[in-house]
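Quarterly update from the structural biology core.
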Amino acid sequence: EVQLVESGGGLVQPGGSLRLSCAASGFTFSSYSMTWVRQAPGKGLEWVSTIYSDGSNTYYTDSVKGRSTISRDNAKNTLYLQMNSLESEDTAVYYCAKDGGDGLGFSRYDYWGQGTQVTVSS
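Predicted structure, tokenized:
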């Protein structure tokens, strides 16, 4: 059974940092690209960042570029998102998702975690 379990969210002041983690199990983690997606209150899903299976390529949405770093440890089956200089606009539930390799948009992600809440507020 595929499982993705996020952790590391919480309440942080503007300008602060958080590192999100996503522990994966039930599939060959090192064979798949992985993605972070977020959903702000009252808004739709927003793609945040993607990393290739071997970590060779990373991609970011413009709003987090330069402030966030996606990484993975294939030996530990874990995906990370380091977020710095956090802003109120980063407040959202953050999900990790496995890239199923097919489909358009969010339908290409075949498994999702339960999400972890990030709240940026003073």
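The longest strand covers residues 18-25.
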